[in-house]
Amino acid sequence: MPKVQTVRPLHPTTVSPRVLGAAFGVVATLLLLAYLVAFDQGAVSQSGMFLHELMHDGRHLLGVPCH
Ligand SMILES: [Zn+2]
User: Fold this and answer.
1) What is the dihedral of CA 59, 61, 63, 66, to 10 degrees?
2) Where does the sequence pass through the membrane (predicted)?
3) Which of 7, 17, 26, 37 lies in the 20 to 30 Å Cα band around 52?
4) Count: domains in the chain
5) Residue 53 C-alpha to ligand 1 middle, in angstroms?
6) CB neighbour class for 39 (10 Å; exposed up to 12, middle 13-18, buried from 19)
């Protein structure tokens, strides 16, 4: 009877909690950034242009020419 040899995967399938936490942080940051940009462009906001004006003033404070 031939001997059965088990094969171990080269890369383990478990993910360390640190990597999982870092990935979650990156995804949450990108989602927040997308939300802020959408809010700034008026795609999300139903209550006016407050955030748009805030970011506009921020651009002026940084010296970015816009108009
Ligand atoms: Zn301006």
Assistant:
1) 40
2) 20-39
3) 26
4) 1
5) 9
6) middle
pTM: 0.50
CA of 44 to the centre of ligand 1 (A): 21
The per-residue pLDDT for range 17-52, each reduced to its tens digit, is: 899 999 999 999 999 988 887 777 766 666 667 777
Residue 42 lies in a domain: yes
Task: Report CA(47)–ligand 1 centroid distance (Å).
Answer: 21
Distance (angstroms) between ligand 1 centre and the Cα of 54 equals: 11
Q: Is residue 34 situated within a structural domain?
A: yes
Q: Which residues have CB less than 5 Å away from ligand 1 (the ion)?
A: 66-67
In a domain, 41, yes or no: yes
User: Domain range spanning residue 44?
Assistant: 28-62
Q: How far is the CA of 63 from the centre of ligand 1 (A)?
A: 10
